[in-house]
Amino acid sequence: xxxxxSFRVNNSYIRHKTYHTDGRCRFIxxxxxxxxxxxxxxxxxxxxxxxxxxxxxxxxxxxxxxxxGESIPxxxxxxxxxxxxxxxxxxxxxxxxxxxxxxxxxxxxxFVASHSEERTKFPFLRIRPDRGDxxxxxxxxxxxxRIKLDKESAAALGLTEGASGxxxxxxxxxxxxxxxxEEIRLPVSQFEAISESIIEKHDCMLYSMYEAAFGxxxxxxxxxxxxxxxxGEVASKLSVSAGFPLLVIDRVSxxxxxxxxxxxxxxxxxxxxxYRNRIL
Amino acid sequence: xxxxxSFRVNNSYIRHKTYHTDGRCRFIxxxxxxxxxxxxxxxxxxxxxxxxxxxxxxxxxxxxxxxxGESIPxxxxxxxxxxxxxxxxxxxxxxxxxxxxxxxxxxxxxFVASHSEERTKFPFLRIRPDRGDxxxxxxxxxxxxRIKLDKESAAALGLTEGASGxxxxxxxxxxxxxxxxEEIRLPVSQFEAISESIIEKHDCMLYSMYEAAFGxxxxxxxxxxxxxxxxGEVASKLSVSAGFPLLVIDRVSxxxxxxxxxxxxxxxxxxxxxYRNRIL
DNA sequence: GAGTGGTCTAGACCACTCA
DNA sequence: GAGTGGTCTAGACCACTCA
Lengths: 280, 280
What we know:
2 copies of one chain form a homodimer. Chain A has 9 helices and 11 strands. Chain A is an alpha+beta fold. Chain A has a 6-stranded antiparallel beta sheet with strand order 5-6-7-10-9-8. In chain A, helix 2 packs across helix 3. The N terminus of chain A is likely disordered. Chains A and B meet through strand 8, strand 9 and strand 11 of A and strand 7, strand 8 and strand 10 of B. Strand 8 of chain A pairs antiparallel with strand 10 of chain B. Chain B binds a DNA duplex through helix 1 and helix 5.
């Protein structure tokens, strides 16, 4: 989360200490500065207080001090814990909420975002039916294989060629027709105990399963889209003839620290569906 | 910009007035409340102060009081103008900067965002070459036609069938090969004086031209993607054979007030290019 | 009524730009 | 050195939730 940069070291912190003459402890702030310095190797670094707080909150999320779906301490409590003002905590929490790591509910508290509790079954899916209701899509598992990852897949996951992986295959369907066929590749190292039964227990909602069963929370995904002709097994899985134009989506899913943990290729029949995107 | 909602009317504003007993004018705040009330028809409305300020700033952008590329008044000046604190102005400006209507530069000022000054030639384009440098793409104009808008296009632009429109056709190319063929439809009502020469004077950078020549600033776009087989003229324009799989992008471009002002269909050859997307 | 997040203020000082 | 946006504080009160 913490961006490494070329921030100049200056006296701001020493001066910062002198703001407060009411005898309150300032050790925590000093410690934060030291943490940040060791975090950024190449040269001295400066980060505003609220980013340091943001980093500390993220650490607590990664370590599991606060788990998905649970509430984190109130802003006042966090302000005390880190010895900063509530406004500074707010700014840190706001950025984490913008990144969808946290969810705020006025009057109730701030919660760790969770794929299990979100109403959307497929949080990052941009495929929509051309007409009809928003979420009629459901997933059905085809099979699960233990494989050796090829060079390209292994590299994309930060592993070496031949590392053990899982290959999950499934269909996305609106009703009878299959809208998409998907191949998902995962490193066995992080998803040891995957099986067909555990996937079906989670209704084939993979991100929710990663989180609940393996403690791996997906934060964002990156996709590359191409148009390609259907061939062989893919064509038959989607019940289209060879040469039929498909939308092929290559997705990499990332967890904390921008670490890639899942590869996914989706072959979509866009005869009655489309991929929706809004660009700011 | 202003979201209509079911905010409860309460006494917050009356109490708010009593915060300040230093004799400063509060008429402007009161006027703001009245403006907001008339803006939202269905029932009484309440919006926090910073959103009301945001709305007033947006009005000044729409009216052209501050033009693209120019700086707007400093936060202190705006705070005086609206009789609120600098923090409240900051919050309004922050939201507008997040929406990319404004751009902040520390030490220099806050500027109205402009497509003419942005370094990216195609601000909303997600097509990238699979390998090679980031921005080798360039556009070349094919032709410009004056047409009657068909029912569907007219409806998408909020016009009636048969309304006058422009049809602009162009190619996007990396080097020799054409990566995409595009058809752009515009209402004549808002783009009266379009011609080949004016487009070429702007290097075929359309959004920049809309802004500079017609005062229409595009704020965001919505896209629907499908895979489709190349046919007839499109195939020949892209030098591919009939049946070649193309990525077809239907885009609607919006200006202030979420008003659609441009339709665009792009046919992309994704043999050596892809559509990139990051989802949070 | 107590506790949560949300808004707003006034004031201080920092980082950066430019003349 | 003056002016800009950026950070941080302390304190007040509002909107909302829940018991």
